[in-house]
């Protein structure tokens, strides 16, 4: 009797176990589908943001080089760029709600690829095919490597998915790995800030490390806020949890300070250096924060982790090669701009405000300098004539400015 009862019990449990096994592949396929949706949203968002920034930059240069009395916010081109900018930011923001943090962050390489291509399109000079390929061979190789790295990131990215509920986020927030990570990050951030403010260590690595540490907290809070909003839309309201508003405040605060340090870096260094070094440091810090807070790589096998790391390295190398070939800015230009002459009226005297370049943006505009568009904006030059004096005791100035009369 006991043997028959045990056999019947095993027969009754067999369909249940089979049903559990059959559910697992469906869950995995749905997880990969969410990864694909999040990756596509991130790629679309970064691509649109790059186009929007370059479109606004182009409208500013056109306005500054013409006699159009309108302000920048009265042009259709600028408003079109603003609309695309908002659309791209919404795409990137929503991507964090679908895919893991460690997968979304490295996809910002799409902005660098798009900016390199747009920068080449903006060049108005005519090049021979041999000269063109010789000058931009590093950019082409870098774009290819960045595309390969992006493919590896999407294919072997982490597949951990968790509902962004208030209980789950609170549990991650008070976990000992994240508390230890936060302690180390606060100490490193304070040391870097001390050397930057007190010791005047204005090195690009120091400034961009500050940006990367702040950015790691920004993306952690962005994923929490975006995930809780999506869960609330699905029917499980999460907006009444205090952790949602804590994460929202931290997201806004870290984003503001991050933009401040980026603006300071853009005043000291070239945009191509900021793009390459900032991408590498910010991506590394964000992946570390995502792996510590959201446990992105829990349950992943060694092969997937190694291939994901290889994809990151290839993307880093591609971004470095793309920005390596950019034209460096000249520290001194042998001309005097007309709006810099005393007594000359410029466009600001007419009440026309030209929006400055968005160098503090989290994405990248065209990496080409404005010197490549001479027909759009060319600063006026002053004629310089050497003057010789007969008296040896009087020192003559090396040049004099010709003054034109009204008749001339």
UniProtKB/TrEMBL annotation:
<feature type="transmembrane region" description="Helical">
    <location>
        <begin position="36"/>
        <end position="56"/>
    </location>
</feature>
<feature type="transmembrane region" description="Helical">
    <location>
        <begin position="274"/>
        <end position="295"/>
    </location>
</feature>
<feature type="transmembrane region" description="Helical">
    <location>
        <begin position="77"/>
        <end position="97"/>
    </location>
</feature>
<protein>
    <submittedName>
        <fullName>NPAL3 protein</fullName>
    </submittedName>
</protein>
<dbReference type="GO" id="GO:0016020">
    <property type="term" value="C:membrane"/>
</dbReference>
<feature type="region of interest" description="Disordered">
    <location>
        <begin position="389"/>
        <end position="408"/>
    </location>
</feature>
<keyword id="KW-1133">Transmembrane helix</keyword>
<feature type="transmembrane region" description="Helical">
    <location>
        <begin position="301"/>
        <end position="322"/>
    </location>
</feature>
<dbReference type="InterPro" id="IPR008521">
    <property type="entry name" value="Mg_trans_NIPA"/>
</dbReference>
<dbReference type="GO" id="GO:0015095">
    <property type="term" value="F:magnesium ion transmembrane transporter activity"/>
</dbReference>
<dbReference type="Pfam" id="PF05653">
    <property type="entry name" value="Mg_trans_NIPA"/>
</dbReference>
<feature type="transmembrane region" description="Helical">
    <location>
        <begin position="103"/>
        <end position="123"/>
    </location>
</feature>
<feature type="transmembrane region" description="Helical">
    <location>
        <begin position="203"/>
        <end position="231"/>
    </location>
</feature>
<feature type="transmembrane region" description="Helical">
    <location>
        <begin position="243"/>
        <end position="262"/>
    </location>
</feature>
<keyword id="KW-0812">Transmembrane</keyword>
<feature type="transmembrane region" description="Helical">
    <location>
        <begin position="174"/>
        <end position="196"/>
    </location>
</feature>
<feature type="transmembrane region" description="Helical">
    <location>
        <begin position="135"/>
        <end position="154"/>
    </location>
</feature>
<comment type="similarity">
    <text>Belongs to the NIPA family.</text>
</comment>
<keyword id="KW-0472">Membrane</keyword>
